[in-house]
Every structure is written in structure tokens, then in C-alpha cells.
Amino acid sequence: MVDLKSQYQxxxxxxxxxxxxxxxxxxxxxxxxxxxxxEDLAKFSGSKFVIPCANGTDAIQVAMMAMDLxxxxxxxxxxxxxxxxxxxxxLLRLKPVFIEVDPQTFCIxxxxxxxxxxxxxxxxxxxxxxxxxxDMEPIMSIAAKHNLYVIEDxxxxxxxxxxxxxxxxxxxxxxxxxxxxxxxxxxxxxxxxDGGAIYTQDxxxxxxMKMIAHHGERIKYYHDVIGCNSRLDTMQASILKxxxxxxxxxxxxxxxxxxxxxxxxxxxxNISVPVRSKNSSHVFHQYTLILKDTDxxxxxxxxxxxxxxxxxxxPVPLHHQLAYKEHLLPGQRFEISESLxxxxxxxxxxxxxxxxxxxxxxxxxxxxxx
Length: 370
Known about the structure:
Layout: H1 4-10, H2 12-25, H3 32-45, E1 49-53, H4 56-65, E2 74-78, H5 84-91, E3 95-99, E4 121-124, H6 136-146, E5 149-153, E6 161-163, E7 169-171, E8 178-182, E9 196-200, H7 203-213, E10 217-219, E11 222-223, H8 234-244, H9 247-265, E12 271-272, E13 287-291, H10 296-305, H11 335-343, E14 344-347, H12 355-368
Parallel strand pairs: 2-3, 2-4, 4-5, 5-8
Antiparallel strand pairs: 1-9, 6-7, 8-9, 10-11, 12-13, 13-14
């Protein structure tokens, strides 16, 4: 699904030099590269403040811990997402309130948000799924109306740009009160291990999140709030600093792959290609098709027999996960998410793909239906 080895070979000289510098200085924790990467990411994203942390899940947790939420406060979260988004909510003894997604963009259905707001609602978590932004303008309007926080889960959409009705633009993660991202190796900006970061434009929130991520410390050995230990280590920061310089070209390559797939499958009766939102650019963390009248398992087996990988993101919506069934509200149904779970399939998409590979993949997929 990704070719990290080939990607590394193209930047090997830069990466190896950066890693050796960290080894030679032995500044493995909070070394200079962490501060440098944080500053570079703030400049790249347009965010006033960036707080690095250990992974994308921690990023969501730290953001929520900084918002003074109380047990049983409610957090609205899409039912069609990776479990980490809801996991943190439950770990903090908050209540995840599941919401349906838009059938075309796979992002949160903004039209359902207000119907789920109660006096206990405190946060909305739009997930920018597969690489494009949720519809943030109405989400922020609803949040302002009801005095709610918005935490953007940007793990899959770093670098995506949202366009507001007045023509202004902001990057994914920089619109809400906080935005979180992951540097898991397979992400568009991935390290060679775990890592994450939080964006915010609020100075007070930034100070608190930074303290929380460092054991609640204001200064060393003085702990003002309950915190956790969530650091981006220097080695990962040194690698991410280099890869950030290539992120626009990585995004361009992914879009070229997506365009090839689009052209190959656009008129196919059994395949629906991804819909581009009119409000957002797409960075294609995943290229996800919706199948119609197709035995998906048979297609996957056929592709595997031809040495073509595929993935299902995600086979089980959150409300069907054993750990989260108790959070389903009476009468709630998620027909769209359940349909997606049965009918989506993601094809390989990464920065190192060439035309020969793409022709082989698309011809093989189409041959399955003959």
C-alpha cells in the first residue's frame, strides 16, 4: 500500500546525515531538531502554535485534557473513522456521541450535528478522512452558536486546504480550537517511528497543552496540572524536518496517482471513484473506491493473486465495535457507514508509483469484472 523503502532511498543522504547528527550529539530527547521541526511545521501550516507529541492518539488526548472536560461530557464524533478518535474520548471518561458521515466525502455529516447536541455536549471532532477536509465552515458556525470546542482530527489530511465562502483558505487542523495530526510511517508526512503534533491558534490553550504533554510541568519539577508523558523524540523530528520539505511534492505525486485511477474507473458500472469536495483540496492519504454489485472479498483475493495489495478502511464502524456498543443512542442507525463498511476498497497510493504499476493495477481490477 506504501513504498517507504523507495521513498527513503530518494532522501537517504539527507536523512542519514540528520540521524547521525542526533547520534553524535546524543540529544535524544528534546534536542534542537524538535524545536526546528516544530517551527517549520508552524510555518508550513500557518498555525500560530504547534505542540509536538508522541503520536496522533496522544495528540487528541492532550487536546481534550486541556479543555477542562468533565466525566460524562459528550463529544460528537463520526462513527466511520479509526478507533483512536473515539478511544481517547472513552479513556477520559467522556461520552462519545456517534454521528453519521456524508456518503460522498466520508466526512462528518454536518446536517446531523445540531440534532445531537445536548446540555452535556462540549466538543465536536470532525475527522478529515482519507485526505480531504470536512465541511468546516458550518461546523465552526454551529460550535460558536452552542459554545462548543472543535478538535480537528487531521491524521490523514496534513496539507489539505479548506476554502471558506468568502474565498479565504486555511490548512486542515488550523481552523478549529485545536487540530491533531499523526506522523505514523504510512501517513503523508510519516516518520520512521511514532510521532504526532497539535495545532492551535489560542495561546492559553497552547501553553496548557504543552504543559500537559510534559507531565503538567510549567517549569522543571513544578507540576501545575495533571499531565502525561508524550514527547516527539529528536530522531523522529530530525527525519520529519527533512520530509516536510518534500511534502508538497509527495502531495502532487499522490494526486497524479489519484487522477490516473479516476480516469481508469470513471465510467465503470461497478465502481464509484472518490468525490472531491468543492470546499477542500485532497491529499489522498487513501484512494478509496465504492463497489456496486461486487463480491469484494473475491476481488481482494483476485488482486492478491496478482500481487496487488488492497485494504478496507474500515471493516467495522465504531457502533459495531464491542468496546463501544454501549454508546449507541436509542434508535440510532448508521446505514451509510454500514454500507461503506461492506462496499469500500482502497487501492495502493503512494509517492513512488509509476505508470507501469498503475496500468497493471487498473487493468487487473477491470479484468476482474469481465
